[in-house]
Amino acid sequence: MKELTMQIKPVGNHCNLKCKYCYAAPFKSDKYKVLDLKILEKIIKESLQMTNKIIITWHGGEPTMVGLDYFKEYIKIVKKYKKDNQEIYNMIQTNATLITDNMADFFKDNKFIVSVSLDGNEDSHNKNRINNIDNGSFNETIRGIEILRQHGINPPLIATVTKNNFLDGIENFDFFINKGFTDIKYSPVYDSSADEFSINNDEWFNYLKSILYCWLDLKNNNIKIREIDEILSWFANKNFSICANNGMCAKWISIDENGNIYPCEYMRVSNMYGNINNINLIDIFQSENYKSFVNKINYYPPECKKCKLFNICHNGCPATRVDSNENLTHEGKYVYCKERLLLFKEIEKILNEN
Questions:
Q1: Using the 8-state DSSP alphabet, how is residue 269 labeled?
Q2: Residue 260 β-bridge partners
């Protein structure tokens, strides 16, 4: 295997916040469990037996809830098994509220890429990202970001776009730029056609269109916007590093606090491959459950195969494909297909004019 990409969720979906739009809310419990270090050791040992390149994303819930000592033990495990010709890249997605000076130092020293969830300015962020006593988490998140920066980490950010904050796009973009962020990713909420947070194709396109022109006005190539870079990569006929776009879903696994192994965090219950306690990682990719999942994600409507963007889109994320009635199903079309085509045409127009 050329490389293995793993998402490790050391406390599963548990979190110290209770964001209103969180897809994982139904899986939360009052008590949380931490992935046993012996199981983590098995994961790392078997991964390094399979490949010389591993990409690990620490995710949640909120992964920093395990504490700094847990990550220190993880590094000891890596040093125990990793050979000189092998590479392990670590990324962590955090709400930053639990970041300490010592933790920031550790992430810097061990070359972790730290990404932070921040939805915008104080008003926009606090609309949805609240703590367990229903207070906004903005101040705690900003405090964590400042600590990271004091230790030499300027984190990329992920901003979640919902029905109740998508009108604040330009205002929040200006806020991000003024706060010194140079790597911005946007994530639209889509769970159904009826919930209070999901945004539709037109809303998502208009949001990104406004961001596109704000970005162009900056005339600063050091500012990276994932959703814009994604389209620009299409013009260069290159695959962009988003699993949902480049057909890499089958090469990604997610492991929760119990050792259960899934394709990813968005396709859990009905697609479990097995448990690390009773299956070796390498055997997963030969299992019937794995083969069944591959068949699912390789469904493409006829119109997809005729689309000029097919080879760099692959019908988008299988977790957000919908049928004609907008019901979620892997045998559907990517919910933001229209938005992608519109944004592609908008950027194509700009490139042709210049």
A1: G
A2: 275
Tokens encoding 340: 């992608």
Q: Which residue has the tokens 């809830």?
A: 65
**Which residues lie closer than 8 Å to 72 by C-beta, 6 or more apart?**
106
Q: Which of 352, 337, 333, 336 is nearest to 235 (CA)?
A: 352
User: Mean pLDDT for the chain?
Assistant: 91
Inter-CA distances, 171 with 147, 180, 214, 217, 339, Å: 25, 15, 10, 14, 21
Amino acid (1-letter code) at residue 52: N
Residues β-bridged to residue 261: 255, 274
State the amino acid at position 156 in one-letter form. Answer: P
With a CB cutoff of 8 Å and minimum separation 6, the contacts of 262 are 253, 254, 255, 256, 268, 271, 272, 273
Separation between Cα atoms, residue 140 and residue 40, nearest integer Å: 30
Helix or strand (DSSP H, E) at 58: strand 53-58
Segment 129-139, tens digit of pLDDT: 999 889 999 99
pLDDT tens digits for range 150-195: 999 999 999 999 999 999 999 999 999 999 999 999 999 987 656 8
d(CA 29, CA 33): 10
Q: CB neighbours of 203 closer than 8 A, spacing ≥ 6?
A: 163, 166
Both tokens of 343, joined, read 């944004």
Mapped to the 3 state alphabet, what secondary structure does 290-354 carry? HHHHHHHHCCCCHHHHHCCCHHHCCCCCHHHEECCCCCECCCCEECCHHHHHHHHHHHHHHHHHC
Nearest CA to 63 out of 91, 26, 83, 102 is that of: 91
| Helix or strand (DSSP H, E) at 95 | none
Q: Are strands 252-255 and 4-8 parallel, antiparallel or unpaired?
A: parallel
Question: Can you tell me the mean pLDDT for 40-58?
Answer: 96
Locate 63 and state its tokens.
């992964």
Residue pair 93/60 in contact by the 8 Å Cβ criterion: yes
